[in-house]
Amino acid sequence: MHIHILGICGTFMGSLAVLAKELGYKVTGSDANVYPPMSTQLQAQGIELLQGYLPENLQPAPDLIIVGNAMKRGIPAVEYMLNQNIPYTSGPQWLAEHILQKRHVLAVAGTHGKTTTSSMLAWVLEAARLNPGFLIGGVPQNFAISARLGDSPYFVIEADEYDSAFFDKRSKFVHYHPRTAILNNLEYDHADIFADLAAIEKQFHHLVRTIPSEGLIVYPAIETALQRVIEMGCWTPTQTTGQGDWQAKLLAADGSSFEVSFHNKPCGTVNWTLTGIHNVNNALACIAAANHIGVNPEVAINALKQFKNAKRRMEKIAEVNGITIYDDFAHHPTAIATTIDGLRKHIGNDQLIAIIEPRSNSMKLGAHRTGLAESVAQADQAIWYAPDNLGWDLAEAVQQSTTPSTVCHTLDAIIEKAMTLATPNTHIVIMSNGGFGGIHQKLAQAFSQ
């Protein structure tokens, strides 16, 4: 059977392609934006990638087309698919029907931290010799691949609230029917499809409605939006993290060492390479979810000591002449702030420069612009990328920032500015949910000359 995936280089769809190939299907795909790490992973799997959405890419017709949620009516391949009556489905629906239906699904949902937490959880189950299947919206470095079937009852999935396809506007996670669910946090995002926070809360409650009474929901005690979701009706046991059932006592300010306790009973100490209180909270949720399927917290804690975060999550790209460059996926003011906070606590008084591309759909719509100036408060310098087609005034949005800020309209201007600011012992974190024109390597090359 030949499956063709429209939008194959998206993190979810690329992972889906890996699973379909592992099941034995012939898999091809097309996309308008082909860039690492997903393109590299797909090519390594022997999956043919075609550039663009041309009808010719669907000739001869595949047996089934899996349609990514970035696809819209009017795209030539979509119109051809409909006119030729080629069978099609959404990614989440195909996943539910062909892989998840008979598995114990452990889902990680939330505005932030899904990729990191699902990577952690898959690694903990692996360390516990449960050999889980997983699908993660990134490439977890402990596995070096974003998805696999596994050969156990357990399947870990990054559960996104974004819509499923142009013909199915339900959130992806409604299809997954998890038995164990982590709800990490909940803020307003995806302004292109949700009118307000209440609309997202409604989708999260649709997810809650699908979790069985023998399952478990894990969420932070202090998240008021998630508390509202639970109060809409919950038929599943819950455990809370942070100030609730599962707690962490910081032994290092940057979050690189902390003691875990459950109902005030110490479980052990995590010493790891990650930083930031957000990652401490991610770890608590992971330990709780693993515990639900019988993994002793001590086993989970030992596994986390060997955990390597997914690629593009505070990933060290280069260290050149005393200047360290990191790549991070942050694309929401809260994520930007927590990323910078973790790095600041880790590096102390060294100079920290943040380079940020407002690339997500919500960013492009200006939905988060009021929070941007404050998000970089702990950086020494901020460099913002404002391409000509941004559609709103980024300079105006960040002009009140307490951090010296520069708005650039080209990658060359960003590199030039960074080179004037950086000195030995400078840390530069580049934040974008896209390829950012390969600026990471361009900047490293500039500093090496």
From TrEMBL:
Kindly report, in one word, the top-level EC class recorded for this enzyme. ligase
Gene Ontology molecular-function annotations: ATP binding; UDP-N-acetylmuramate-L-alanyl-gamma-D-glutamyl-meso-2,6-diaminoheptanedioate ligase activity
Return the Pfam families for the record.
Answer: Mur_ligase, Mur_ligase_C, Mur_ligase_M
- Residues binding ATP, per UniProt: 110-116
Which reactions are catalysed by this chain? UDP-N-acetyl-alpha-D-muramate + L-alanyl-gamma-D-glutamyl-meso-2,6-diaminopimelate + ATP = UDP-N-acetyl-alpha-D-muramoyl-L-alanyl-gamma-D-glutamyl-meso-2,6-diaminopimelate + ADP + phosphate + H(+)
Outline the extent of the Mur ligase C-terminal domain.
312-434
Q: Which residues form a coiled coil?
A: none
Enzyme Commission number(s): 6.3.2.45
GO BP, sorted A to Z: cell division; cell wall organization; peptidoglycan biosynthetic process; peptidoglycan turnover; regulation of cell shape
Q: In which pathway does it act?
A: Cell wall biogenesis; peptidoglycan recycling
Q: Which residues form the Mur ligase N-terminal catalytic domain?
A: 2-102
The Swiss-Prot or TrEMBL record lists the needed cofactor(s) as: Mg(2+)
What keywords appear on the UniProt entry? Answer: ATP-binding, Cell cycle, Cell division, Cell shape, Cell wall biogenesis/degradation, Ligase, Magnesium, Nucleotide-binding, Peptidoglycan synthesis
Q: Which residues are in the Mur ligase central domain?
A: 108-290
Top-rank taxon of the source lineage equals Bacteria
The record ties this protein, via SUPFAM superfamilies, to: MurCD N-terminal domain, MurD-like peptide ligases, catalytic domain, MurD-like peptide ligases, peptide-binding domain
What does the function comment of this entry state? Reutilizes the intact tripeptide L-alanyl-gamma-D-glutamyl-meso-diaminopimelate by linking it to UDP-N-acetylmuramate.
Its family remark reads:
Belongs to the MurCDEF family. Mpl subfamily.
PANTHER family named in the record:
UDP-N-ACETYLMURAMATE--L-ALANINE LIGASE-RELATED, UDP-N-ACETYLMURAMATE--L-ALANYL-GAMMA-D-GLUTAMYL-MESO-2,6-DIAMINOHEPTANDIOATE LIGASE
Q: What is this protein called?
A: UDP-N-acetylmuramate--L-alanyl-gamma-D-glutamyl-meso-2,6-diaminoheptandioate ligase
Q: Which gene encodes it?
A: mpl
